[in-house]
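Retro notes (design track)

What went well: tokenization of the new backbones is finally stable.
What didn't: we kept losing track of which sequence belonged to which structure.
Fix going forward: every design gets posted as structure first, then sequence, in one message. First example under the new rule, 347 residues:
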């Protein structure tokens, strides 16, 4: 068991699972590999190992690049596709899990349903500032690679698994490795000693890592790869203070027929440049830009997200939003705003 887990909490969780029949598992909006991987892992464990009627319920359907993370046959519902079913399932559940985010506000349109549910609620997450008062049971630490890794250690601590990853359902083991791999950017960031132990456990348990990597990194659309090249060549700007930024406008999205989520990971690329301290990617939506921020050690993405972009996350990987006309008069003013952030936060 890893240090942040306590025997009483594990016993409490085991009792909650034992006593429930229908489980709703939620994760954050715009689900990434960790949100989908952890949700898939838990749904498969609860169904296959515990015989529970478990369903994952997310606010929106995943981008094409991460969709294959969901194992065949794993029950997932999406608010943007099956709104009535999502609401009915949440209302009819007697146990609720929230994964890979620190509160129900990150489930957007599902927030009210979840908060109205009288079922016991369990949080399993690795972001800062968990909304503890909303949950009956909280597993939360930022000192871990991913929600998938934390879930791995929680599942391994349960009596039926007893520390032996080979007792996890194969779909669960694969989804856990997949979620951790995406959140660490394939063992590049937020890797802890426990992360390697987890990976080692899962490989011992028979997970096909080559298959996981191929699903994650060898199935992009050609358009996506060409768009990445264009953005790095034509769009990338670097300020004198060392802020790299790219702005994915609607025009660029249309030109390359980019789908939601297809720029995932791009924000990390400029950090490989020696003089870059921080990288920001903006994606244009109807009245705001979605903001992704990554930083090198010693520079806080989290602080910039919290003070300039109504957001937060992790010390070196955060996100937020930039609204018009609230924060900037119009989308065209985004570059000037970023230049100012660079000057104020990095010099
Ligand atoms: Mn995560």
């Amino acid at each position: 068991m890893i240090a942040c887990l306590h025997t009483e909490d594990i016993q409490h969780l085991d009792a909650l699972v034992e006593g429930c029949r229908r489980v709703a598992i939620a994760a954050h909006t715009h689900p990434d590999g960790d949100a989908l991987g952890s949700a898939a892992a838990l749904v498969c464990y609860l169904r296959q190992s515990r015989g529970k009627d478990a369903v994952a319920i997310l606010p929106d359907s995943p981008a094409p690049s991460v969709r294959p993370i969901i194992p065949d046959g794993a029950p997932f519902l999406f608010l943007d596709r099956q709104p009535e079913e999502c609401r009915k399932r949440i209302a009819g559940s007697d146990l609720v899990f929230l994964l890979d985010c620190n509160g129900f506000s990150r489930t957007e349109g599902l927030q009210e349903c979840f908060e109205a549910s009288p079922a016991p609620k369990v949080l399993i997450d690795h972001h800062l500032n968990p909304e503890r008062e909303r949950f009956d049971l909280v597993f939360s630490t930022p000192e871990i690679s991913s929600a998938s890794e934390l879930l791995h250690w929680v599942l391994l601590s349960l009596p039926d698994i007893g520390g032996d990853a080979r007792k996890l359902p194969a779909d669960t083991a694969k989804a856990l490795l997949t979620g951790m791999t995406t959140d660490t950017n394939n063992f590049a960031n937020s890797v802890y000693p426990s992360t390697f132990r987890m990976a080692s456990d899962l490989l011992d348990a028979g997970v096909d890592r080559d298959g996981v990597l191929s699903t994650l990194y060898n199935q992009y659309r050609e358009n996506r790869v060409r768009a990445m090249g264009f953005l790095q060549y034509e769009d990338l700007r670097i300020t004198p203070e060392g802020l790299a930024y790219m702005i994915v406008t609607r025009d660029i999205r249309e030109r390359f027929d980019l789908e939601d989520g297809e720029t995932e990971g791009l924000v990390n690329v400029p950090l490989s440049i020696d003089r870059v301290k921080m990288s920001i990617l903006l994606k244009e939506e109807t009245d705001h830009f979605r903001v992704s921020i990554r930083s090198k050690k010693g520079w806080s993405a989290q602080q910039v997200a919290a003070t300039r972009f109504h957001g937060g996350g992790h010390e070196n990987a955060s996100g937020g939003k930039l609204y018009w006309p609230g924060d900037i008069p119009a989308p065209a003013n985004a570059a000037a705003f970023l230049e100012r952030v660079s000057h104020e936060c990095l010099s």
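Added context from the reviewer: The mean pLDDT is 96.
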